[in-house]
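Proteins fold reproducibly. Take a sample protein:
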Amino acid sequence: MPSVTPVILSGGSGTRLWPISRKSFPKQLQPLFSDRSMLVETAERVSGNGFNDPVIICNAEHRFIIAEELLKANIPLKSIVLEPVGRGTAPASAIAALLLVRDDPDALMLILPSDHLVQNREAFTAACFQASQAAEMHALVTFGIVPKSPETGFGYVQKGVPVEAVDGCYAVERFVEKPDRETAENFIASGDYFWNSGIFLFRAQDYLDELLAVHPDMLTLCEQSLSLGVRDMDFFRLDQHVFAEIEGDSIDYAVMEKTNRAIMIPVDMGWDDVGSWSALWDVSDKRPDGNVIMGDVIIHDVQNSYVRSSRQLVAALGVRNVIIVATDDAILVADMDYAQNVKDVVETLHTEGRDEHLTHTRVYRPWGWYETMETSTHYQVKQLTVKPGGVLSLQSHKRRSEHWVVVAGVAHVLRDEDEIVLHANQSTYIPPEMKHRLENRGEETLYIIEVQSGSYLGEDDIQRYEDIYGRR
């Protein structure tokens, strides 16, 4: 296979998989099928076999989690590009294409989402080989999934005449939005329609040429945001102000529906976009009673259901076709037929000014993570877990004080000009306005119980002075 550079898009929030998926920790960073996140499984799928090191385009908020996930999985990267705001797949792909043609004018790029399931890796790789042959002839290739059912949650691609130059490829007749049930059934019966996977392969320069022809303003702004971008540690940060001016759009709308070079490769590779809990139930291994059970769960007389717990015990009795998902701070109970409506709950949380759709009780930071254990009006209790070598920023708070108790490990604490070393069962007090920093210089993980008290306990009550991770 000609050398192909994967471009993995990791900007989605996965609202229909709430309460597991949250804005700060969306579904692509979650281990939904195994002990590995969907992002890692996607990156592993495009390693070896003629694939170059991937480019990751992601939300700046997720950068440290993504970098650490891929480092743990020993997956080398070409670049991690940070989007200041989401603007859709078309601008993200343009940024990647601009980067690739700098090094190779003939570079081939494979655009793929980070949160899709592919169960047949061999079929996927074979399709990439076919697509790369077509792309070398200047075609823009989309992967059409052989449909299993008249699915109304997917868009469709209608195949046209066969492409003689590449066996098994077809001209794209048209792209179709998500249809109603009757229309989807007619699509399936015709044999000419395939699910739109959102996976594309083409020469980077060909994509840029097509984008220039139909959306020159978008391309110009992408070029400017790239030229004004800056290197930030292991990341490349696009210019925030220029990128925000881009009118968002998808590859489908911006380019593929307008070009006369679009072709489709039909592929049956066990694909699913896992866009809902019912979809996850459908593709998961089931017990003889039709249930998918994960975590600490007890069931009696339950059938065809998805029951999952992140921590606490969940017991279910005498129910059918339901979704039960429990996290530390939220429980979802829904009929399978209402799986697509979970996003309405997320919208309600947003409207009511709550934060259960934004973060979990455990929040990841580049130095480790913290978890809220108890909260009230004027106090809050957290557990801080600082990995070896982790350093919190030099900071102060205006409206709260903090008490730190070391549970395990050794803490190096800076309090204004004084540095102290704390071992297990030792503690210190940080009053308001005091500059302070916490550091783990040891080889063991540091665990601390933090008690905050004051008139305001929000995470935005922080003044950073120094930060080794470049946070502002």
